[in-house]
């Protein structure tokens, strides 16, 4: 049930966003609100981790694995973004020039 709510909210946001796409002032406000929401979620995640004794007791062991996963995810994201840029966006920039 919860997943339907999340998907429904996401789709509703897309439709509302499409209606507001030409309103620059609204877009800037939404971008700022999204940033604050992300900061709040990260803060709450930190509180959740700090409360969990299992995570705190095994932090050194978990930390190395998390670091490796983070580096791998970052490298993969950068590589994939570069590939997508080359195949999809670079062609359009060359045509416009």
Topology:
Layout: H1 2-19, H2 24-51, H3 53-57, H4 59-96
Describe the structure.
The protein is mainly alpha-helical. It folds into two domains: 52 residues; 40 residues. It is built from four helices and no strands. The mean pLDDT is 87.
What's the overall average pLDDT, rounded?
87
Point out poorly predicted stretches: none
- Write down the secondary-structure element order: HHHH
Q: What Rg do the Cα atoms give?
A: 20 Å
Helix content: over 70%
If helices are DSSP runs of H or I spanning 4 or more residues, what is the number of helices?
A: 4
- Strand fraction equals under 5%
What keywords describe this structure?
97 residues; 0% strand
Summarize the structure.
The chain contains four helices and no strands.
């Amino acid at each position: 049930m919860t997943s339907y709510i999340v998907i429904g909210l996401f789709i509703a946001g897309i439709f509302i966003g499409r209606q507001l796409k030409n309103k620059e002032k609204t877009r800037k406000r939404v971008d700022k609100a999204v940033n604050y929401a992300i900061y709040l979620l990260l803060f709450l995640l930190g509180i959740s981790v700090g409360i969990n004794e299992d995570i705190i007791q095994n932090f050194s062991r978990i930390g190395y694995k998390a670091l490796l996963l983070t580096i791998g995810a970052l490298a993969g994201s950068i590589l994939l973004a570069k590939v997508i840029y080359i195949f999809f966006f670079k062609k359009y920039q060359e045509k416009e020039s």
